[in-house]
Amino acid sequence: MEYNTQHFVRKLKAMGITLTDEQVQQFITYYEMLVEKNKVMNLTGITEFDEVLEKHFEDSLSLIRVVDLNHNLKIMDLGTGAGFPGIPLKIAFPNLKITLADSLNKRILFLQEVIDELQLKDIAAIHGRAEDLARDAAYREQYDLCVSRAVANLSTLAEYCLPFVKIGGRFVSYKSGECDEEVQDAKSSVFLLGGKVKDVTKFELGDAKRSFIAIEKVAGTSKKYPRKAGVPSKTPLK
Question: How many domains are there within the chain?
Fold first, then answer.
């Protein structure tokens, strides 16, 4: 099947991302695998090619607005789901070292298929809950950057994500709509976890309002965080 990727390629170029023909083909293959697997398991509600390019791929890569992705960063993508933002980031920036983490094993099996098919290197897909993985010395405070497109309260996300980030690193949350009040409400819990809200970057993606909340890790996270499975989402820190 023929796909028109010119608009996508142009928009990425305007953000400072230049794709090779091979990388464009990797995005097409990823799209085809995504919609095929979506027939038997729920990965995305968006399946039209142009929409996936904009709302999943371009959105994932918009991280370049707040992070210099040309450095050899070690990144944790927590609650990756169908592989966003981690796999688009890896395709466009092969220099990145990425861990994809998700609590649903069948998603991880799909992501491993994608990694193998696209022949991606320095990327791992791991199954586990954030509450458990963050207590594992192999992952705790080992990352330059933790990213998440997961839909959750910022205090909850910070409790899940900040334990993975080394001091001096960052946690960046992808958000839709307005988030100013959410950021204000989360400041004390972010501080409790060793973080500090650095900035909020707002932008438009098509007709959607999007934001990046960047939190810097300024101190080690206490060993009591994250709390037991389910607690951070049921009872967010204040």
Answer: 1
